[in-house]
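Hello Y.,

Per our agreement to keep a running log of every chain we model this quarter, I'm adding this entry. I've kept the format consistent with earlier entries: sequence first, then predicted structure.
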Amino acid sequence: MQANDITYPPTVGPIVHGMREYLAPEWSGVSVTPKRSGKPTARMVTVRDDGGTGRDGVSRRRHGFNIWADTPVDAQNLAIAVADGCRKVFRALEVSDPVDVTDDTDERTLIGAKPLTHYFLSAVIPVRALNL
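Predicted structure for the entry above:
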């Protein structure tokens, strides 16, 4: 089998599902989705697949996690919980420290008139090929 014959499964859906389950007991009301919805909630996490390379049927896929919450402390704690979930649930090979993101005025996510605090982190999660 050649490298271009290897097929990797979609990853965002399973990661969204696993992160929801991981956060649920402690973080009530958090929405975990692949894309930011039109109606923001006080606690949100989005997951995206930023790609990666595969070798021998295992891909080192980098995933980006955007985290928002209605207070700076809540946002930072939620970002730390997401990082912990990447390590514990998905056995991430690397997890960046959460970074505070300053959104431009037109990119801010508001609840009422108050902007949410935004953090970002990335994680390298191994993905096994479907057809080995």
